[in-house]
UniProtKB/TrEMBL annotation:
Organism lineage: Eukaryota, Metazoa, Chordata, Craniata, Vertebrata
Catalytic activity: [E1 NEDD8-activating enzyme]-S-[NEDD8 protein]-yl-L-cysteine + [E2 NEDD8-conjugating enzyme]-L-cysteine = [E1 NEDD8-activating enzyme]-L-cysteine + [E2 NEDD8-conjugating enzyme]-S-[NEDD8-protein]-yl-L-cysteine
Entry protein name: E2 NEDD8-conjugating enzyme
Keywords, sorted A to Z: ATP-binding, Nucleotide-binding, Transferase, Ubl conjugation pathway
Keyword Transferase among UniProt keywords: yes
Family, per entry: Belongs to the ubiquitin-conjugating enzyme family.
Length: 171
């Protein structure tokens, strides 16, 4: 699956070789982000919640992937929600960019797919925002929790959805 990992191994083997031209070495360099992602994706795939699935449309681009969350409890039980994640070049100093692709009526997700999750914020007042010690596993578990314990009606991004819930919980 991780074809980028095999590329990294190949590149490390070429580093020791003096026969490669300098120009070709510079085109084979792998970013710090990609080196981190190889480790993090392996850890992520080994520790996914049972309600989540990760899909890499291009196995050579670990920085772009899709997450499917299928909650097994709560208001959204039985639903299937798609998220698109893009990990920027400055990762792990900045958080991944995540967008919800599924239309959803949720207090922490707008109708255009923006997500209110503190760990996705570069700067957070409460100190729970992004930090270089966080990983993709934290992001996936956080997104999964938006459908259970992190569902927040008190400080919503989608005010209409939160007010609707407070007015009529059954609807």
């Amino acid at each position: 699956m991780l074809t980028l990992a095999s590329k990294l191994k190949r590149d490390d083997g070429l580093k020791g070789s003096r026969t490669a031209a300098t120009a070709s070495d510079s085109t084979r360099r792998v970013s710090v982000r990609d080196k981190l992602l190889v480790k993090e994706v392996a850890e992520l795939e080994a520790n996914l919640p049972c309600t989540c699935k990760v899909h890499f449309p291009d196995p050579n681009k670990l920085h772009c992937f899709q997450l499917t969350v299928t909650p097994d409890e709560g208001y959204y039980q039985g639903g299937k929600f798609q998220f698109e994640t893009e990990v920027p070049d400055a990762y792990n100093m900045v958080p991944p960019k995540v967008k919800c692709l599924t239309k959803i009526w949720h207090p922490n997700i707008t109708e255009t797919g923006e997500i209110c999750l503190s760990l996705l914020r570069e700067h957070s007042i409460d100190g729970t925002g992004w930090a270089p010690t966080r990983t993709l596993k934290d992001v996936v578990w956080g997104l999964n929790s938006l459908f259970t314990d992190l569902l927040n009606f008190d400080d919503p991004l989608n005010i209409e959805a939160a007010e609707h819930h407070l007015r009529d919980k059954e609807d």
